[in-house]
C-alpha cells in the first residue's frame, strides 16, 4: 500500500508540472509544427531531449531490463541497437527534406507511388501510433494493479485523460516543452537508480560481459534483427519523423545525433540492470521481485517512476503525432486546433478499447510494427538515398504485402495451429530466430521487387519538390 501511495503522489506531481508547463496554443503552427506562439522553432537540445524521452517509452524500459534479465548482455545490446535508428533517421530526414525538398514523408511517397504510397504508409503509421497508446497505458495499469483490477483500470483511465488534457492544450509545442522537463527528471531518477545499484557492491562486470556466451542465444539473434530493422524503422515512426521537419538543417541533424548516443546510454543502463539482476535470480523468479530482493523497495520505486515519466512523455508525443497524421497528413479534416484535439481524443479512446478488450493477445501487436516497417527498407535505399524515381507502384505493393504477411505470421506464430508450421519449415523454434528469418525474407522480396521493377520500367524522372534552403 505504501508503494502505491508513493507512486500515486509521484504521478500526480509529474502530471501537475506537465500541465503547468503546457501553454494553451491557438495557432496551427504551434499545435502541429511545435513552434512557439511567436513562431520560433525549438532549439537543438530541446529537440534532442524530446526525441530521447519519447523513444524511451515505458515498454522500452521494461523490455530492455527483461531482455537483459533473461538473455544477458546480448539481450541488453539488442534493445539498445534499435536506438541506432536515430542515425538512420537523421540520414532519412536529411535526404527527404533537404536533398529532395519534400515537407513530409507522405508527400514524398505520393510523388513516387501515388495514392498507394500514402495509403499503405498511413495504415502502418496509424497502427504504430495506436499500439503506442495501448502499450504505454497497459504498462501504467500493471504498475498500479493486477490485470483487470479496479486500480488497474482507474490508473489507465486517469493517466490517459490527464495526458490528453495537457496535450490538447498545446499540441506538439506543449509536447516538446514537457518532454524537456520529463527527460530531465528521468535522468535524475536513472542516476539515482544506478548509484544505488553500484553502491550495493555486488556488481561483477566480468560476469555481466560473459552473460551471453553462445551465438545462438536469443539475445544475439534479436541484436541481428535490430540491425536489419534500423534502416526502415525510423521512417515508420511519426514521432521521430515529425521532429525532423521543425528546425533548420544543422539543428535537426545535430539533435538526431545527440539523441542517438544519449538514448543508447539510457536504454543500455536499464538493460545492464536487468543483466545484473538476472545473474542473481532465483528459480522461477521474475525481474521486479529479483530487483526488490537485491536492492529493496526504493530502487523498485525509482524504476516505476521512470516508467511513469516515460509513459507520459510518449503519450503526449503520440497524441501530437496522431493529430498531425489525421488532420494534416491524411487531410481528414481542416487543419484547425479544434480538429487536432478531436483526433487526439479518438486515438485515446482507441487505445483504451484495445486495453479493456483484453491485453493477452493485443499486447503482442506492438511487435508487429517493426516487422511491418521492413517494407520501407527498399524505399529508403532505392527511392530516397539512391534517388531512383523509376520504381513502379507494383514493386512498392509487393514489398508492403510481404512485410504485412511476415508481421501477421510473427504475431500468430504461437497462437494458431496453422502458423506453427513455421518452426519445422524454417528450422527454428525460438521466436526471435523466426523473426530474423521473416525480416530477411521481407528484405529480399522487397529489394528484388524494386530491382525487377526498375529494370523493366526504364529509368525516368518524376516531379520532385523544390529543395528547401538549409
Protein model, in words:
The chain is an all-alpha fold. The protein has one domain (2-359): Hydantoin permease (Orthogonal Bundle), CATH 1.10.4160. The protein is 75% helix and 0% strand. The chain is built from 21 helices and no strands. The longest helix is centred in the middle third of the chain and has 50 residues, at 150-199. The chain starts with a helix and ends in a 13-residue tail after the last helix. Mean pLDDT is 87; it is low at 466-470.
Question: What general outline do the C-alpha atoms trace?
Answer: globular
Mean pLDDT: 87
Q: Total number of β-strand segments?
A: 0
Named CATH topology: Hydantoin permease
> Into which percent range does the helicity of residues fall?
over 70%
- Total number of helices: 21
Number of domains: 1
State Rg.
22 Å
CA(first)-CA(last) distance: 55 Å
CATH class: Mainly Alpha
Main β-sheet description: none
Amino acid at each position: 500500500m505504501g508503494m502505491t501511495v508513493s507512486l500515486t503522489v509521484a504521478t500526480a506531481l509529474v502530471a501537475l508540472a506537465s500541465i503547468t508547463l503546457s501553454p494553451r496554443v491557438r495557432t496551427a503552427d504551434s499545435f502541429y509544427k511545435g513552434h512557439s506562439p511567436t513562431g520560433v522553432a525549438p532549439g537543438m537540445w530541446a529537440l534532442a531531449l524530446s526525441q530521447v524521452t519519447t523513444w524511451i517509452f515505458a515498454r522500452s524500459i521494461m523490455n530492455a531490463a527483461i531482455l537483459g534479465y533473461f538473455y544477458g548482455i546480448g539481450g541488453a545490446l539488442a534493445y539498445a541497437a534499435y536506438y541506432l535508428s536515430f542515425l538512420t533517421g537523421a540520414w532519412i530526414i536529411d535526404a527527404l527534406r533537404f536533398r529532395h525538398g519534400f515537407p513530409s514523408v507522405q508527400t514524398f511517397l505520393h510523388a513516387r507511388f501515388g495514392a498507394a504510397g500514402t495509403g499503405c504508409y498511413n495504415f502502418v503509421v496509424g497502427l504504430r501510433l495506436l499500439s503506442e497508446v495501448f502499450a504505454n497505458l497497459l504498462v501504467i495499469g500493471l504498475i498500479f494493479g493486477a490485470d483487470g483490477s479496479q486500480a488497474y483500470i482507474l490508473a489507465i483511465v486517469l493517466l490517459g485523460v490527464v495526458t490528453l488534457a495537457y496535450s490538447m492544450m498545446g499540441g506538439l509545442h506543449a509536447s516538446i516543452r514537457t518532454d524537456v522537463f520529463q527527460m530531465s527528471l528521468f535522468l535524475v531518477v536513472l542516476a539515482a537508480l544506478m548509484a544505488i545499484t553500484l553502491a550495493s557492491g555486488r556488481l561483477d562486470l566480468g560476469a555481466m560481459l560473459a552473460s551471453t556466451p553462445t551465438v545462438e542465444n536469443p539475445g544475439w539473434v534479436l541484436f541481428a534483427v535490430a540491425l536489419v530493422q534500423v534502416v526502415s524503422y525510423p521512417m515508420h515512426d511519426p514521432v521521430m519523423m515529425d521532429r525532423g521537419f521543425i528546425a533548420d538543417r544543422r539543428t535537426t541533424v545535430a539533435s538526431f545525433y545527440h539523441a542517438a548516443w544519449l538514448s543508447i546510454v539510457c536504454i543500455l543502463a536499464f538493460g545492464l540492470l536487468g543483466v545484473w539482476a538476472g545473474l542473481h535470480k532465483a528459480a522461477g523468479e521474475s525481474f521486479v521481485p529479483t530487483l526488490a530482493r537485491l536492492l529493496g523497495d526504493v530502487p523498485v520505486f525509482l524504476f516505476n517512476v521512470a516508467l511513469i515519466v516515460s509513459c507520459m512523455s510518449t503519450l503526449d508525443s503520440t497524441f501530437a503525432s496522431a493529430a498531425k497524421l489525421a488532420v494534416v497528413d491524411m487531410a481528414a479534416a481542416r487543419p484547425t486546433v479544434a480538429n487536432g484535439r478531436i483526433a487526439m481524443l479518438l486515438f485515446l479512446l482507441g487505445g483504451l478499447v484495445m486495453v479493456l478488450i483484453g491485453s493477452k493477445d493485443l499486447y503482442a501487436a506492438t511487435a508487429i510494427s517493426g516487422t511491418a516497417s521492413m517494407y520501407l527498407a527498399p524505399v529508403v535505399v532505392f527511392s530516397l538515398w539512391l534517388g531512383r524515381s523509376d520504381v513502379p507502384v507494383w514493386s512498392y505493393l509487393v514489398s508492403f504485402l510481404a512485410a504485412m504477411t511476415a508481421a501477421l505470421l510473427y504475431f500468430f506464430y504461437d497462437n494458431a495451429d496453422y502458423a506453427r508450421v513455421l518452426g519445422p519449415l524454417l528450422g527454428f523454434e525460438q521466436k526471435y530466430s523466426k523473426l530474423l528469418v521473416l525480416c530477411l525474407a521481407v528484405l529480399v522480396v522487397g529489394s528484388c521487387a524494386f530491382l525487377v521493377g526498375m529494370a523493366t520500367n526504364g529509368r525516368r524522372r518524376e516531379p520532385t519538390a523544390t529543395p528547401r534552403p538549409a
